[in-house]
Amino acid sequence: MAGKSTALRDRLTAGTPAPPATRAGMPPLVRHLLLALAALAVIVALTFVVDPFTNVRLATVGYYLIAVAGLTLLTGFNGQVSLGHGAFMFIGAYTVALLVLHVPSLPFWADLLLAAAASGVAGTLAGAAAARLHGPYLAGATLALAVGLPAVTQRFPELLGGSNGLAFTVNSRPAALAGTIPTPQWQAWVVWTTVLLALVVLANLTRSRFGRTLRAVRDDEVSAELAGIHIGRTKILAFVLSAVCGGLAGGLQAFLLGTAAPGSFTPVLSLSLLAAMVLGGIGSMWGALWGALALVYFQAWSEDLTHALELGTDIANNLPLAVYGVVLIVVVLAFPQGIQGGVRALRTRLSRLRRTEEGHR
Amino acid sequence: MKRTTVLAAALAAALTLASCSGAGEQQTGDTADAGAAPGVTDTSVLIGTHQPLTGPAAPGYSRISVGARAMFDYINENGGINGRKIEYRVEDDGYNPTRTVEVVKKLVLQDQVFALLGGLGTPTHSKVIEFLNTEKVPDLLVSSGALMWDDPAKSPMTFGYQVDYTREGKIQGDWIKKNLAGKKVGLMFQNDDVGRDSQTGLDQFIAGQIVSRQGYDPANTDVVPQISALRDAGAEVIVCSCVPAYTALSILNAAKLGYRAQFVVSSIGADPATLTGLLQEFGKRGGTEVSAGQLLNGLVGTGYLPDVSRADDPWIKLLREVHQKYIPNEQLTNTVIFGMVQAFTFAQALKAAGRDLTRQKLVDAMSSGALEGPGLTPFGFTQQSHSGYTGAFVFKINPDTTTTEIQPPMVTDRATGPITPANLQRKTPQEINLFGGTS
């Protein structure tokens, strides 16, 4: 049996040489790294022209992006629904907070790696349980994670600060830059460097054999198993990777805002991440970017709107959420594949239009 | 596999470049100038605040900024302070510390507010206190009674407002010891500085009477386990160091369990009108009509501002006028009054800071010790102390939800000092003369 499935797997994967050639004729790793470098250059340039608070917002988009990207890998590529992704952000944030407060000699990149590792471990445990669950059961279990985990702070108020949480300042800026580069700008650089590196890893993984395995499990577990794919292992690995992304996001949030408190990691956060993923487009890493932008800017715009219109407090209080909900419904109705689906449709139509025009000439 | 190793190495290398020294607590090297005056023009001064307009603490507290805005409208209509109108920007943080940091950074970095007024909440405001002090933004009249706002050495720009939880706990403990001697006491408290600091005061007097201590987390609205535990421990008195929503939940759940106890509630959660609204709303959600008067009758609370029902008080007269003129559709509660008094007190400090305004001058005016206001106990503001109101009176709620003072205002310190009568000669609004004379 084992021999047979190996043979089948070999046959299934025989047609795809690794690494596969791409449009530009470059291996994907090089192409992704170059793309990430270009993106970083754009962002660094941007941080010089915008005001300090926009730098904070840029960094906020960054950490949401990596959290949503992790969720995209899990749900979009592997078909596992997680309603509890905020729990991994919680772990990441508290790991960074505790390290900054109690092991101040450690450099920040080490704090961040440890935060990622800690949520990876948690992701392994959660993933092992999740691999045995399907659909609503999985959703329920992950939601329980988001509801239950922040309560740990109540159990250890001395260490974790109870409902108050922890406050701290992360110093990561090299002394040479002090006074020349403002803190928010430096923070945006650090966040985006980390996020882009993590995205390179994710993009590469999803385009590799592992990515095909993920999708095979998502589309049809039985045939995937027949093809010799270890279902449980694949599912756990997907969970671990997305948990690591969540941990990184939480660690970066702690770095940016200098806080880790249970009130920040309510189930609402997990659900917002999920909504952002759906809004951006489930099947694509680009969707994560649109989702993260939506998370940050819909809130900001609707608040600016309420300030500008000077609405009554009761309306103003609930408008941001209402606007977000309406946009989500409209986008999903118009483009079931999310914003990225819309972008893709637009691109197809444009290229078709161009082709017909060329045909007429 | 090999590729993964390369990637990991690349990741590590890039992160190493990103940081070369330890990440621990350190000064960032940024300096701000307290002599500056952003947000100030010839005709206006922009101030900001963060409030829970949505989320778990919004019931009750979302009305504070409504009261403050009404008071600023009144002040602006009378020509403003030193010729400047006050622009008041309210940001919703949902009682979520992450949002608090975001909106406060927005207020300071983008909107360039001159000062922050009455930022609400201990778990929330504690996350921005360092940022505000680094940026040298006056952080006035924080809406919380935690002790940490009174630390002029570490946070020179931050000033408290409410009576701090330890002082209030001492006055409550002293009252319980005298009036409910020998009764078993159970504590219900918010599991953060609200609870911790309150118990520091309560324990000085009634440590021996306490039979059970139950904390709640503001993210979890199920308080049945805590109330059951208090009942099982035989507590005859429940001291609730809780925000309004949790005071109401505790009262409602005790009633549901058929558990009758004498409630003693901190000023942060003892506003009868707010509690009435909450009890009715929570009752409706649970599918029952509740009689708030019946549930609140006999509840003991502490306060430091004049109660809305004191019709003869000159300050209440003024506040009622402002209410009638600017927010007639809003119910006038002690919570709305909290915001109005806060705004009035800020205006006093702004006036004392003079026409030639800087952030440092505003802070100097706050710590001059000359601030007198509507409160029934004096402020503790000096160069050495940034403590807000320094004591409280004890009241009882009547069956018609009005209140009766049962112990006059007393003052004390945050350590183990004595509790003494406040004996405050309060100035009237006319004597304070907010709009007359230019300094």
Automatic annotation (TrEMBL), chain A:
Residues 1-20 are annotated as: Disordered. It holds the Pfam family BPD_transp_2. GO terms for molecular function: branched-chain amino acid transmembrane transporter activity. CDD domains: TM_PBP1_LivM_like (cd06581). InterPro entries: ABC_transp_permease, LivM-like. PANTHER family: HIGH-AFFINITY BRANCHED-CHAIN AMINO ACID TRANSPORT SYSTEM PERMEASE, HIGH-AFFINITY BRANCHED-CHAIN AMINO ACID TRANSPORT SYSTEM PERMEASE PROTEIN LIVM. It is a multi-pass membrane protein. The lineage of its organism: Bacteria, Bacillati, Actinomycetota, Actinomycetes, Pseudonocardiales. The chain crosses the membrane at residues 33-50, 56-74, 86-106, 112-130, 137-156, 186-205, 236-256, 268-298, 319-339. It is found in: Cell membrane. It comes from Amycolatopsis albispora. GO terms for cellular component: plasma membrane. Keywords: Cell membrane, Membrane, Transmembrane, Transmembrane helix. This is Branched-chain amino acid ABC transporter permease.
From TrEMBL, chain B:
Transmembrane segments: none annotated. InterPro entries: Leu-bd (IPR028081), Peripla_BP_I (IPR028082). The keyword Signal applies. It comes from Amycolatopsis albispora. The keyword DNA damage does not apply. Residues 46-400 form the Leucine-binding protein domain. It holds the Pfam family Peripla_BP_6. Keywords: Signal. Residues 1-23 form the signal peptide. This is ABC transporter substrate-binding protein. It comes from the Bacteria. Belongs to the leucine-binding protein family.
